[in-house]
Structures are given as structure tokens and as C-alpha cells.
Predict the 3D structure of the following.
Amino acid sequence: MTKNVKKALLFAFDVMLFFIISLLHYSDFLDFKIFGAGTTLLIPLLVAFSMNHSPLTAAMAGMLSGFIMDSSAHGTYCFNAILLLLIGTFVSVSSSTLFNKNLPSAVVISLICSVMYYLLQWAIFHTFSEGITNGLSFLLEISLPSAVLTALFIFPFYFLYKYIDRIKP
């Protein structure tokens, strides 16, 4: 197989993977919940993808994933597009300058990004609308456990992209 054909197939695989994960997430087919804490599988997928790609490619993948999330969620007003763009860029830059591209680094970066995502989501959408007491209980009972649960899904995506990086032309 030629180099260009391999690149095109890998690009098509990446696009399909992001699309399928977002479709499964919003169709509630893969609904991983433990005591009300759920997952956003696009975050660890974006982290694993961004660790192996340039900042521009990671930013575009984050922005497009965020647009998909915003088009499916009610009242987010480009929150996910902006935040996932920043996450993709942060991961790509930090994995090439601050961190090594190994599993412990991927877990730490995934945890940082998940906590940042859920904290900002809580601060923007739940703090003022639900009051202090309900907002704080939402943070401690739903948002932070969701961040940890989401970060755990870095493992399958990390190994998938590690394999893809090995066969990449």
C-alpha cells in the first residue's frame, strides 16, 4: 500500500472513530454511569488522538468534536467547541514539550483535562442556576466523579493510538 493511501485510510479511521463515539454517547447506547456520574468519551479519545498529532490537527479535531457535542446538547452555546479546541491544543503542545508520550503521562493529562472540563461545565452551567448548596453537591457528587470516570477511559484509546502510531507511514 502506498504512503498516501495509508494516510487517507488512517484519516478516515480517525473521522469515523470520533463520529461513532459521539453517536454512541448521545444515543445513550454506551451509557457508563456509576451513582449518577457519567462519562464523556470524546475527552479521552481527543487526549489520545492529540498526543500523537500536531497542535493544528489536534485543535481542529477538538473543535469539530465540540461542534458535534454542542449540536447535540441543549443550551451550551459553543462551550464544548471552545473547550475541546483548547484541550486538543494543550494536549498536543504539552505532550511534545512537557510530558513524554507514555501511559502515565496520558493518564495524568487525561485527568487534568477531564477535571478542567467538568469544573468549567459546573461553574458555567450549574453554579448560578441551582444555588450554592445544590451546585456544591452537584460538584462533589456528579462532576468530580464524572471527571475521574472519564479519565479512566484513556486506557483503550491510548493503546489504540499507540498501535496506529506504529503502523503510520
